[in-house]
C-alpha cells in the first residue's frame, strides 16, 4: 500500500509514520514544513519525504494523491490560543487547504482518512459524546475559539456528502486529547501557545506558575498517542472495509481528569523525576480568568468524554494506557528532549 501523509512531522504524523515503517511493508510519502520530529524515519528506504508547504507545493500533492491508495491530510493549526488570536489562518489552513485535498481525493478516487476532532462536539450537554447522535454545540460568533470546530465540522459534512453520493471512500476520526512525546514544539509552549500538558511541563521546567484557566474545573479525557495509533492502524488496514463511511471517536474515557487535578498530578510526577527530585523550588499553581489567558474570544468545554462503542465494536480496539502512565511517558520524553537541546547549546 502507498500512503500519503500531509503534515507528517506533526504529533500524530510522526508517531504514525514510525509505527508504519516499523511494523508494515507499506510505502509512505510525506510532506511537512519541517522534519525535526522525524529523526526515526527520515533515512528509511520506504519513506519519501518532501520539505514543503501544502499551500505552495500543489503539483507534488496532486501527483501523489493520484498515485497513492490512501491520503491522511494531517495539516492543521490545533491549539486554542491560535483559534482566538489567528482565526483566519485557522480557516485558510484547516478548511481551505484541506478542502482542496478532499476534492482531489474525489477526483482521483483515492481513499481518505480525515482527522475531525473532539472539538466538533463543542459544548454538547451529553455525558459521553456519540459519533452518530450527539448534538454539536458551538458558541456565538464573537467567541472565535469555535472557528476550528466549525471548520472541521463543515469538512466532516462535505466529506460525508461526497460519501453519500458514492464519490469518496472515507473515514472520519476524532482524536480526544491525545498526549505523548512530541505533542507540541517546546518553543510554542514557551510562548504560551501549546496544548495543556506541554504547557504545564514547560511551566514546571521554567519554575513559572502553572495557570489554571477559570479555576481548572473543566475536564478532559487524555489518550496516550500509541493507543490512538493502534486504532488508526486498524482503520488504515480496514479489513472487510469495516471503517468505510464511519466516524470514530478515538479517546480514553477512563482517563478523565480535571485540569486542576492534572496540574497537581504532573507537578508530583515532576518532583519525583530523578532530574528534579532535589530541586529547591517548584512551580506554584494559580488561577487565572480566561479573558486574561486567552482573551475575550475564548469559551471553554467543561466536560468532553468520548463514547468508544463504535471503535470497540467495529475495530475491536480498546485504549490500554492509564493516565499516570501516559503522563509519565509524556513528561519523561519532554525532559529527555529538553536535556538533549540544552546539551546542543
Ligand atoms: C484541544 C485542541 O483544540 C486540539 O488539540 C484538539 O482538536 C482537541 O482539543 C483534542 O486534542 O482533543 P483543548 O482540550 O481545549 O482543545 O486544549 P488544551 O489547550 O489542551 O486545553 C485543555 C484545557 O486546559 C482547557 O480547558 C484550557 O483552558 C486549560 N488550560 C490550558 C489551562 O488551564 N492552563 C493552561 O496553561 C493551558
CATH topology title of the domain at 76-178 and 225-253 and 305-320: Rossmann fold
How do the strands of the widest beta sheet line up side by side?
3-2-1-4-5-6-11
CATH class of the domain at 76-178 and 225-253 and 305-320: Alpha Beta
Radius of gyration, taken over Cα atoms and rounded to an integer in Å:
20 Å
Share in helix? 40-55%
CATH 2nd-level architecture of the domain at 76-178 and 225-253 and 305-320: 3-Layer(aba) Sandwich
CATH level-4 homologous superfamily of the domain at 76-178 and 225-253 and 305-320: NAD(P)-binding Rossmann-like Domain
Mean pLDDT rating: 97
Give the beta-strand count.
Answer: 13
C-alpha end-to-end distance: 41 Å
Order of SSEs: EHEEHEHHEHEEHHEEEHEEHEHHH
Would you write up a description of this structure?
The protein is 42% helix and 16% strand. It is built from 12 helices and 13 strands. The chain has a 7-stranded parallel β-sheet with strand order 3-2-1-4-5-6-11, sandwiched between helices. A two-stranded parallel sheet has the order 7-10. Strands 8-13 form a two-stranded parallel sheet. It has 345 residues and is α/β, with parallel strands linked by helices. β1, α1 (11-23) and β2 (27-32) form a beta-alpha-beta unit. The longest helix is centred in the first third of the chain and has 22 residues, at 87-108. α7 (196-205) crosses α12. It has a domain at 76-178 and 225-253 and 305-320: NAD(P)-binding Rossmann-like Domain (Rossmann fold, 3-Layer(aba) Sandwich), CATH 3.40.50. The protein is globular. It has helices spanning 11-23, 58-67, 80-85, 87-108, 146-164, 186-190, 196-205, 225-237, 259-272, 290-293, 309-315, 323-344; strands at 2-6, 27-32, 47-51, 70-73, 111-115, 170-175, 178-179, 210-213, 219-221, 223-224, 246-250, 256-258, 285-288. The structure holds uridine-5'-diphosphate-glucuronic acid. Uridine-5'-diphosphate-glucuronic acid binds at residues 78, 80, 117-119, 175-177, 195-196, 199, 211-213, 216, 218, 220, 259, 300.
Amino acid at each position: 500500500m502507498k500512503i500519503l501523509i500531509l503534515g507528517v512531522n506533526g504529533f500524530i504524523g510522526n508517531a504514525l509514520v514510525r509505527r508504519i515503517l516499523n511494523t508494515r511493508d507499506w510505502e509512505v510519502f510525506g510532506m511537512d514544513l519541517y522534519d525535526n520530529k522525524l529523526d526515526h524515519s527520515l533515512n528509511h528506504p520506504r519513506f519519501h519525504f518532501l520539505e514543503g508547504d501544502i499551500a505552495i507545493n500543489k503539483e507534488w500533492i496532486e501527483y501523489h494523491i493520484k498515485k497513492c491508495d490512501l491520503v491522511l491530510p494531517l495539516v492543521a493549526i490545533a491549539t486554542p490560543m491560535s483559534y482566538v488570536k489567528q482565526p483566519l489562518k485557522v480557516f485558510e489552513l484547516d478548511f481551505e487547504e484541506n478542502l482542496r485535498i478532499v476534492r482531489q481525493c474525489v477526483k482521483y478516487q483515492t481513499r481518505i482518512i480525515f482527522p475531525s476532532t473532539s472539538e466538533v462536539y463543542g459544548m454538547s450537554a451529553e455525558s459521553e459524546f456519540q459519533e452518530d447522535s450527539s448534538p454539536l454545540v458551538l458558541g456565538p460568533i464573537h467567541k472565535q475559539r469555535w472557528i476550528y470546530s466549525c471548520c472541521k465540522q463543515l469538512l466532516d459534512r462535505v466529506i460525508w456528502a461526497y460519501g453519500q453520493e458514492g464519490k469518496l471512500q472515507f473515514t472520519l476520526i476524532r482524536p480526544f486529547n491525545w498526549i505523548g512525546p512530541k505533542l507540541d514544539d517546546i518553543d510554542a509552549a514557551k510562548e504560551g501557545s501549546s496544548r495543556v500538558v506541554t504547557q504545564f511541563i514547560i511551566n514546571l521546567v521554567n519554575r513559572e506558575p502553572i495557570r489554571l484557566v477559570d479555576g481548572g474545573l473543566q475536564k478532559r479525557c487524555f489518550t496516550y498517542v500509541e493507543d490512538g495509533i493502534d486504532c488508526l492502524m486498524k482503520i488504515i488496514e480496514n479489513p472487510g472495509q469495516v471503517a468505510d463511511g464511519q466516524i470514530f471517536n478515538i479517546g480514553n474515557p477512563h482517563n478523565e481528569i480535571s485540569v486542576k487535578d492534572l496540574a497537581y498530578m504532573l507537578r508530583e510526577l515532576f518532583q519525583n523525576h530523578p532530574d528534579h527530585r532535589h530541586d529547591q523550588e517548584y512551580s506554584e499553581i494559580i488561577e487565572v480568568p480566561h479573558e486574561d489567558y486567552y482573551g475575550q474570544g475564548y469559551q471553554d468545554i467543561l466536560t468532553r468524554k468520548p463514547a468508544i462503542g463504535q471503535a470497540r465494536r467495529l475495530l475491536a480496539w480498546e485504549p490500554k494506557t492509564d493516565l499516570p502512565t501516559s503522563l509519565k511517558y509524556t513528561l519523561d520524553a519532554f525532559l529527555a528532549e529538553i536535556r538533549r537541546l540544552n546539551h546542543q547549546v
